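pasting for ref
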Amino acid sequence: MTAVKVVDASALAAVLFAEPAGEAAAARLRDGSLVAPSLLAYEITSVCLAKIRANPAQRVAFLTAFANWYHMGIELVAVDQDGVLSLAEQTGLSSYDASYLWLARRFGAELVTLDRRLAYASAAR
């Protein structure tokens, strides 16, 4: 059985846009059934837009990289907002980050993130 892994926007962006930590993040995502809160779609779109605005000459390359996430088979899942709010209060995370942590806890899954605070909160369980 394939392990469920929760992927956050920081890890996905690193993979898609070939950022320095992208290869390490991709290695952690391999052999996993990937899930994320539905907000991932908005976050990764925002990352792409920021990259386009910062470097318009690379727009086509960024859009090509962005399109690759549709082929990664990431299941977008609704989260329990009450649970996310409670978790955000307990951990000091933003509600966005707490959504990833909530989902990882719900599935008993590895959380693949490059965000230090989120990784720390995940390890603290």
